[in-house]
Amino acid sequence: MTKRKITIIIASSVVALLAAANILVGIIVSWDAAKAPWNFISSQILGMKWLNDLIWKIVQAVSGVHSLETWQYKVQSSIQFFVYDIIKITVLLCFLIFVISYIQSYFPPERTKKILSKYHGIGANIIGALLGTVTPFCSCSSIPIFIGFTRAGLSTGVTFSFLISSPLVDLGSLMLLVGVFGWPIAIAYVVAGLIISVIGGTIIEKTGLGKHVEDFVSKGESVDIESPELTRKDRIIYARDQMWGTFKKVFPYMLIGVAIGAAIHNVIPREWIENILGSEKWYGVPLAALLGAPMYADIFGTLPVAEALYNKGAGLGTVLTFMMSVTALSLPSLIMLRKAVKPKLVIAFLIIVLIGIIAIGYLFNLFGYFFI
């Protein structure tokens, strides 16, 4: 047995023991006691609520204490929201992308192709969607990998399950969502994204729509160059470069997203948001999907806006639909996808994903109280 397999077995055993211990605490003591460490991780480590409190104290120490209705208080609150979200997202982004990229270094494209080629049917689509979660890419940077998978002869169900999943539900987004919305909503978002990915890939495969790719994609040669075995130092360097490259790419969108979120948080009245995007408004979900699609951002730029909308009274399903629309259906990514596939497949892809995220939105608006 190799050293790597031993490490995986030990890590899995530790996780299983911790989970079993947590369940025992819930049964013997109380479920509130069992949830306490998870709530601490969610609020204080990933959510950094302590940082939010610290920034607010600093802002008040510098500019004084003002009553809730004054414009000075709103300015203070906007500054707090902006500084807090920028620091929190930057720290989590850099840490998570580094960790995910280190994991990803064990799954170069050639190895991923070999893993996927062993599976068939819906099981292969599930694996394709799951592999999309360990790729910290936006939708545009996922398309070249989609082309490589297609040239390698992988089924369209697998390639499209991967293409939908990759920008939608990576591990980084899970941790960020936990910090903002908590564990139940974050896990529900990821599961919903994986379901959309698998169903979307399966429909495209079963209907034969996957054959409508451009000739240069289907007839291009797939060159399998075995990746050299990386040392631990090589993997750390790779993870560092991926972290820095991703940060530089998403930072402008993150600034814009946090600025919009701060404006929504302190300028737009709660009644306006509730009247337009509240969970009881039937048009809120499709409106959120249509508003999100033209934008170009990833989860890191979208999350501050979604957080502000949710805190102002937007429906949970409406907010999740908005996030999914921005990350999976951005106009630039559809334009790039069109270069690789024919119009009929682009339209089918758009309709399938749009229907999926709208359905998810309505379901979460109806049953969101289970997760809050």
Question: Key terms for this structure?
Answer:
372 residues; mainly alpha; 2 domains; 18 helices; 78% helix
Quick synopsis:
With 372 residues, the chain is an all-alpha fold. It is 78% helix and 0% strand.
Helical/strand content category: mainly alpha
Percent range for β-strand residues: under 5%
Largest sheet: none
Shape descriptor: globular
- What is the CA-atom radius of gyration, in angstroms? 22 Å
| Unreliable runs | none
Q: How many structural units, i.e. domains?
A: 2
Distance between the termini: 45 Å
Q: Helix-strand pattern, N to C?
A: HHHHHHHHHHHHHHHHHH
Count of individual helical segments:
18
* Number of beta strands: 0
Helix content: over 70%
Q: Report mean pLDDT, rounded to a whole number.
A: 78
What do these coordinates show?
The chain starts with a helix and ends in a 5-residue tail after the last helix. The protein has two domains: 1-46; 49-370, no CATH class. 78% of the residues lie in helices and 0% in strands. It has 18 helices and no strands. It has helices at 3-28, 31-46, 49-63, 71-104, 109-117, 121-132, 139-151, 156-168, 171-181, 183-206, 215-218, 232-266, 270-277, 284-292, 299-311, 316-328, 331-340, 343-367. With 372 residues, it is an all-alpha fold.
